[in-house]
Amino acid sequence: MTEDGLPPLREVIAAHGLAAKKSLGQNFLFDLNLTRRIARAAGDLRDCTVVEIGPGPGGLTRALLMEGAKRVIAVERDERTLPALAEISAAYPGRLEVISADALDVDWPKLIDGSAKIVANLPYNVATALLLGWIGVDQWPPWFSSLTLMFQKEVAMRIVAKPGTEHYGRLSIISQWRCVATKLFDVNRSAFTPPPKITSSIVHLVPRAVCEPVCDIRALERVTAAGFGQRRKMLRSSLKAVFDDPVAVLESLGLDPQKRAEELSVADFARLAQVTV
Ligand code: SAM
Q1: Tens digits of per-residue pLDDT, 71-95?
Q2: Using a 6 Å cutoff on CB, does residue 54 contact ligand 1?
Q3: Per the omega criterion (within 30 degrees of 0), is the bond before 57 cis?
Q4: Whether residue 274 has pLDDT greater than 70
Q5: Which pTM does this prediction carry?
Q6: Domains (ranges, CATH) in the chain?
Q7: Which residues pair with 100 in a beta bridge?
Q8: Out of 72, 75, 78, 248, which residue is the most buried by the measure of CB atoms under 10 Å away?
Q9: Whose C-alpha lies nearest to ligand 1, atom 3?
Q10: How far from 116 is each of 47, 69, 170, 244, CA to CA, in Å?
């Protein structure tokens, strides 16, 4: 038995026949010390509803409960995990609700009453889509007060990248315009079963109350898509997709039309989004 009185995760996997499926991005964490570190990175959970995506056999779920989460709502697509998760529910009466669903299809504001923190070791194949689904919405401020998420390290670097660096792009701009984003720590591939090919990283995002400069999120998506769709081109050329006269627009904002997208700040892109039609 482990500290929470439940069986070690390796035994849970064996008892319930949970061989990892690649198609579901299943790389499980067995070390409760590590999952508790991830849970603690989300801050104080005691008065909090936590939404977890992809609990799998429950390594992070158990950590969230051990760290005192008042309530955990865990959304899992793989029905094979439900009996293992039911055992955790029974050990923490009234504190764990498991929803058997594809997280990409969930209507979150309808499901979550009040505010929640999202904490997850995300399935890599849908991680970026889930993040953009949460932070790319029209309705802001959102239903969550923070996101503490595991990504492939390369995706984590894109989320927090600064202008002029290799990883800076659309994901950096949308993430940083909407949230304060911090990369917390790396998790070695050997921590997972089966080990993925690459290192993972934990990112913490806190939604901004007001996203400034204020602009329409869809317009911001259009200008960043145009700018980074042709990353090596000068903005005078790449922004033709969104402006009839990109040179005039750029000069009116005091921006050099010869620059490339990667040289503009998040605020510059938001100002460009303000003048799109
Ligand atoms: N939380 C567990 C851990 O840390 O050991 C498992 C993490 S594993 C990287 C990703 C989990 O997400 C798997 O349990 C997988 O079945 C689940 N999953 C994959 N796609 C999903 C989706 N679209 N919606 C909900 N869960 C999904």
Answers
A1: 999 999 999 999 999 999 999 999 9
A2: yes
A3: no
A4: yes
A5: 0.97
A6: 9-207 (3.40.50.150), 217-274 (1.10.8.100)
A7: 76
A8: 72
A9: 28
A10: 10, 11, 26, 43
